[in-house]
Specification:
The complex is a heterodimer of chains A (465) and B (234).
Chain A (H helix, E strand, L loop, with lengths): L4 H19 L7 H9 L3 H4 L5 E6 L4 H14 L5 E2 L7 H10 L11 E5 L5 H8 L3 E4 L7 H4 L2 H11 L5 E5 L3 H4 L7 E6 L27 E7 L2 E5 L12 E7 L4 E6 L2 E6 L5 H17 L3 H8 L9 E6 L2 E7 L5 H13 L4 E5 L4 H6 L22 E5 L3 H10 L7 E4 L16 E6 L4 H15 L5 H6 L1
Parallel strand pairs in A: 1-3, 1-4, 2-3, 4-5, 5-6, 6-9, 13-17, 14-15, 14-17, 15-16
Antiparallel strand pairs in A: 7-8, 9-10, 10-11, 12-13
Chain B lengths: L3 E5 L11 H9 L4 E5 L14 E4 L4 H11 L3 H9 L3 E5 L9 E3 L5 E3 L7 E4 L5 E9 L2 E9 L1 E4 L6 E7 L9 E6 L2 E4 L5 H4 L1 H10 L10 H18 L1
Classes of the chains: A alpha/beta (465), B alpha/beta (234).
């Protein structure tokens, strides 16, 4: 698309907005991009793009993977534009491009790394035309925004350009089905001990062959529809992965990846399966970008998970763990619940599951609770579960439906009273689960929890005494 | 009396935690038999007269397949509805029994035409809302998340009167269809868990007015709290 008067007006207005925001000390907003798109709806198509554009999309893990990819590239000396401090929708991408452009919009840097919201694909992909695009996975997400997985697959199929090289999850048949005519590379994790063909989750969004509709035969199901399957009727099967985790060493915190026949050890952020997928997808993307596996492995030594997503602290020999559990995302929460179940020792769990925005002005659609595997919390090693927030009665009901004995459940409408319901007796760790927008609240409750674990008595304990 | 509940195509028609309705009924009716009919099999209602037939929401492509799957059985379905068998269809499952679904391109996909209702799809504008309605003296609440709006003639058989939110379409003051013991509603997710009065109604229609609600005290407290918020915040 050619740049016209309207484009330049939008660009200058957006740059002016960015300057004002900078002067008043506001960073990382998508306001300049919002104005640019309001004034010139096809702004992204008219804005000159950097020579190489790499995109990272998918339902879960895209922020973690984008951060990893950016950190490795920075460590390897690459200079690039990214939307790390902004948003992953069209206005965030536009803001990043505007901030990194000359007065007339020419890109200052030749490389762009963008985390891209999959739902916003129609507004981004046809304009940005990424050279390389990673899709981490496709799952159910917010019912409001993403509707259902078929809708998301359809918009990705429609809007991913034919020229884009794809890096896809071979263990996710929805993701692996994207754009069969494009150049595609796949990553996957070999079958691990204990993995069977039984699905242990409520949600399994692919059950029949996408070609002929026959019931799939599963070699193994890791979780939900993640696993390897084939069709006994037409021969359709999960693709072979060029990047395969062949061995996981949890003690050494390393994983061995077969990269097209070359074996390479990589450090792991931690041994949870989702983080192994995150690291693996970053490795596959960076390798397809052109970095050697040795260089990627060396750079990954310096990485850690963002503390806004997972943070462990210790008080008097007990752990206090902040764990992100994205609200209205049944899969992300189910993964978090499974992580808690598998964490060693006796655990108490504090749940802040309310949607921050809905709780303030409306009533949240709580249907997603019933797609979420609360059943993982029904475990003898989890003696206490505390639910706090506007929908605490609904969470309590969901916990009861999961078969959790009522005596293990406490709940309150007041978020700040959650820690007071905690009993420190007989527990080794306290998990605090929070949504992206409630990190401040989670930190406050973490401090209250630490104070309790280090000697104080909670209101609940005082009452019991 | 023997209770047999048929759940149609649960492997596909379960997009928004809807199967929780049946799990909750199982808690209320531990003696009941719950039969899951997969898409590849013949429905139970062809050979038997179940106490309840349930169908949940589905994707648009699945909806077209479900219509074709049920088309040969439309007379039987109507016979059972007329005979007073209980049905609960939630979300866009109701459209399967309507006259047609109109796509964005203006194409009409013929449905089973058991009810005078048609739906219009708009895939780029998803409708999300909270809903509060009245069923006699009771208040029923729920959530809508859909790509369609439905239209019916003025003399159709509505299920709920709109108190807050959107009915069959944005200007319609009624929601869903209730005809004899058939209940179809665009409300999705755990409608029976959200509305103990609705579960009671269903159990009564099934001939079990004395059946106890599972977690009765908690479900009532959750309902009261949510109702308060629906009145105050929506």
């Amino acid at each position: 698309m050619k740049r016209n008067l309207r484009f330049f007006f939008a660009l200058f207005f957006a740059k002016g907005t960015a300057l004002v925001l900078k002067l008043i000390g506001r960073k990382g907003t998508s306001m300049p991009g919002s104005w640019a798109i309001i004034l010139c709806p096809d702004f992204l198509g008219r804005m000159p793009r950097p020579k190489t554009v790499v995109g990272i999309t998918g339902t879960n893990g895209k922020t973690t993977v984008a951060n990893m990819v950016e950190d490795v590239l920075s460590h390897c000396g690459y200079d690039f534009v990214c939307n790390r401090s902004g948003t992953n929708v069209n206005t965030g991408v536009a803001s990043s491009l505007i901030a990194n452009s000359t007065f007339f919009g020419k890109p200052k840097k030749d490389l762009a790394i963008f985390e891209l919201d999959e739902r916003s694909s129609p507004k981004i992909l046809p304009y940005l035309k990424p050279d390389l695009l990673l899709c981490t996975n496709i799952f159910r997400d917010s019912y409001k925004r993403n509707a259902h997985m078929e809708f998301i697959v359809d918009i990705l199929q429609q809007y991913i350009p034919e020229s884009t090289r794809l890096v896809l999850n071979a263990d996710d048949l929805l993701c692996a089905s994207l754009k069969p005519q494009n150049h595609r590379s796949f990553f996957g994790i070999d079958r691990q001990p204990g993995e069977t063909a039984q699905c242990r989750n409520i949600v399994q969004d692919i059950r029949v062959c996408p070609n002929c509709g026959a019931a799939l035969s599963w070699e193994f199901i890791r979780y939900h529809h993640i696993g390897r399957a084939s069709c006994p009727q037409c021969g359709f099967c999960s693709p072979q992965a060029g990047y395969r985790v062949t061995q996981i060493d949890a003690d050494e915190n390393t994983m061995t990846v077969d990269c097209h026949g070359h074996q390479q050890k990589f450090p792991m952020l931690n041994s949870s399966t989702i983080n192994i997928y995150n690291s693996l997808s970053a490795i596959a993307l960076l390798s397809q970008f052109g970095l050697s596996t040795e260089k990627i492995a060396a750079s990954m030594e310096k990485l850690s998970i963002s503390e806004t997503r997972y943070k462990e602290e210790e008080v008097d020999g007990k752990k206090v763990i902040l764990h992100l559990a994205k609200g209205q995302n049944p899969i992300a929460c189910s993964r978090a619940f499974e992580n808690i179940r598998d964490y060693p020792g006796k655990k108490a769990v504090i749940l802040f599951l309310d949607d921050y925005f809905d709780a303030a002005h409306s009533v949240e659609n709580i249907s997603w609770y019933y797609d979420t595997d609360f059943e993982f919390l029904n475990n003898p090693d989890i003696p206490q579960i505390i639910a706090a927030g506007a929908r605490h009665w609904d969470v309590c009901l969901r916990l009861l439906m999961a078969g959790i004995p009522p005596e293990k459940i406490s709940h309150t409408a007041e978020n700040h009273q959650a820690a007071e319901l905690l009993s420190k007796e007989g527990i080794d760790a306290v998990f605090i689960l929070y949504d992206v927008y409630t990190i401040g609240l989670a930190n406050q409750v973490k401090d209250q929890t630490k104070a309790l674990l280090s000697g104080g008595k909670s209101a609940g304990e005082q009452q019991r005494a | 009396m023997a209770i047999k509940i048929e759940i149609l195509f649960p492997e596909f028609c379960n997009l928004f935690g809807d199967m929780s309705n049946m799990l909750y009924l199982q808690r209320c009716l531990p003696q009941g038999e719950f039969v899951k009919t997969p898409f590849s099999e013949e429905p139970l209602f062809l050979r038997e007269r179940p106490s309840l037939v349930y169908l949940g929401p589905m994707t648009e492509r699945t909806q077209e397949k479900v219509i074709e799957k049920l088309r040969p059985y439309k007379e039987r379905l109507w016979q059972l509805i007329e005979e007073g068998v209980c049905f609960l269809f939630t979300g866009n499952a109701l459209e399967v029994l309507g006259e047609y679904i109109e796509t964005e391109e203006g194409k009409r996909l013929p449905a089973l035409a058991l009810f005078q209702l048609h739906a219009k799809r708009d895939m780029m504008h998803r409708h999300n809302s909270t809903f509060l309605g009245r069923l006699g003296q009771e208040e029923v609440m729920g959530f809508k998340s859909q790509f369609t709006m439905a239209f019916a003639p003025p003399d159709y058989h509505p299920f709920l009167e709109v108190v807050k939110g959107v009915g069959l379409h944005e200007k319609c003051k009624t929601e869903g269809i209730r005809y004899k013991n058939f209940v179809g509603t665009y409300l999705l997710g755990p409608v029976l868990i959200l509305n103990p009065c609705l579960t009671k109604l269903l159990l009564t229609q099934m001939g079990l007015p004395q059946a106890e609600l599972a977690f009765a005290s908690e479900i009532e407290s959750a309902y009261r709290q949510r109702l308060k918020d629906f009145h105050a915040k929506t």
